Amino acid sequence: MNSNQTSGSLYFQVLGPVRAWCDGDEIDVGSARQRAVLARLLLPTEQPHPIPEIIDAVWGEDLPGDPRNLVHKYVGGLRRALDPGNAASRTSALLPLTANGYALQINRSQVDLEMFTRKVAGAMALCDSQFPRDSELLRDGELPEARNQLNGALGLWQGPAFGQLSGEFFAVERKRLTERQLTVIEDRIGIDIAMGQHTEAAADLVSSLFENPLREHLSALLMIALYRSGRQADSLGIFQDCRRRLINDLGIEPGQELQRVHQQILAGEPVRSLRLSSGADIAPIGLNSSSGGVPAEADNGGTSVLAGVISAPEQRSYLKPDINDFSGREREVRRICAILVEPAAAPPVVVITGMAGIGKTALAMRIANLMKSQFPAGQLYLNVRGMSSHPVEPAEALVRLLRMLEAKGVEQARTEDELAEIYRIALCGRLLTILDDVSDERQVRPLLAGSNSSATLITSRLRLSGLQGAHLIELDTLEPGDALKMLSRILGPERLSVNREAGARILHFAEGLPLAVRIAGARLLARPHLALGKFADRLADEDRRLEELSHNDLEVGGSLASTFSYLGPHSTDAFLLLGSRQEQDFTAASAAAALGVPEKMAEDIIEQLVDVQLVHVVDIEQVEQPRYRLKELVRLFARSQVADLTAQVGADERRQSA
Prior knowledge:
Serine Threonine Protein Phosphatase 5, Tetratricopeptide repeat; 18 strands
């Protein structure tokens, strides 16, 4: 294959990890530094890339001994990978060295960034303000095609631009490209609204606002989407939420766009156009002049916007408060928000599952508070204490939920079925119910909504796979960066900056478990005189770690104890024996040998521990012989239980011999 053939069959990605393909087969482009050189060469320019600019992009101010020689070395590696038949310095037609630097001789359409730029430009050309405004033409012509172009552009993104490449140059470029991506998302959503796809637009906007809460244009679009859906009160609520955030975080009032949309909605005026980033204005289709900005199919009977706000009943909200130091979980938040607002044939049910202390309730409260405007009939919260010694029975739970709804006829109901029937009738309007700490499907089935407009959010240490149609969201421990962010928000960045190494050790011992991070932060906050290094040393002592990770009513050990009490006799014995071993990882075969039982029986017992998330599968690819693991905090808890039992047996023996 000659160089021209090779060049024409290459494709490059920078909108995500830096990657390359030839004829559809991925090419290994080498180390992180070599990928950084390739990424710099792939950025658009009319001239070859000067070597000093490549050096600046790859190393910044942290220069190695001979950076020019290293650039030549990495370019040589790229030639061997991309153009193996012509790797010599000045004979490579694909990547030649000129007097001015290096130039990658490819068609720009072979780079995903160029395709992104072209698709966006094509979409904006279709939305040019000169095209006709006839609504039927917009449905069947330019507007849908523009939307498809923008979707195609966004589909090219496979993660943060340049992946994990570090350095100031790539950080600045990544930020610039991310801003372009977000602008395209806003334009695509604006077209969705113009085409009448308000539900889809609202779902995307809720997710985008979670990540960009101070971006006013997103709030304006969400206000318009809700307004044109006939939900004027919710639309005005979005304005108040955004205004409160801007004042609290930045000390400023909303800008002109948000103020204008707010005034239009207050006055009941139609939203006659949506402004795209290119400056083009697009007109929403299907405007009904008698209903303000609301399409004809969403007409609310001609009532004015102000009348709807004034006459609306007070929203019932029994939510626990959101927490200011909530960190991470962006992917889970986006997914759950989308599930809760997507049109579906059955009421959406989401089960958030994970081990004790993993942050299931915190995530549920974050989502419920974010989604308040999507459930104007109210939000109910009930802790059913499934893992406690006195769980709430379904009949009692129904009575408590009905009282929140101020339903009539509760006292006359004699059976659980009658209570469930009253509950289903009482669930009118869009209402969100959070059922916390559910033990099994039996406890929650009678509490599920029957109306498609309502939704249920469940937290449980078990996966509740027997709930038909439920969406399962399984939580893992926090990523190191998110755990650090959480601890920093609790303590304040100044205190962590004093001894970053000690902070890293504390987070290591907390294992990314949100409850453990919260307790560590709370203890340090309560003792401003306690040095981080000294607290890290205390956590390093395995015999004291669980004791150190307790503060007032927060205890890692106590949280695990409620799961431990849920176990049967065989699984209890197995957990204590496996936890007393030094090895964290094991297989069913090694567990069978330790327990002295057949391998099949050991596998069944281990799976019971997996069900309650005391044991985790760590090598799921090995389906023939999966590997299991006890997290270190769980193993230390098992050891503490063995020590307590041993002490109790010793005390009993002494009493008997006395």
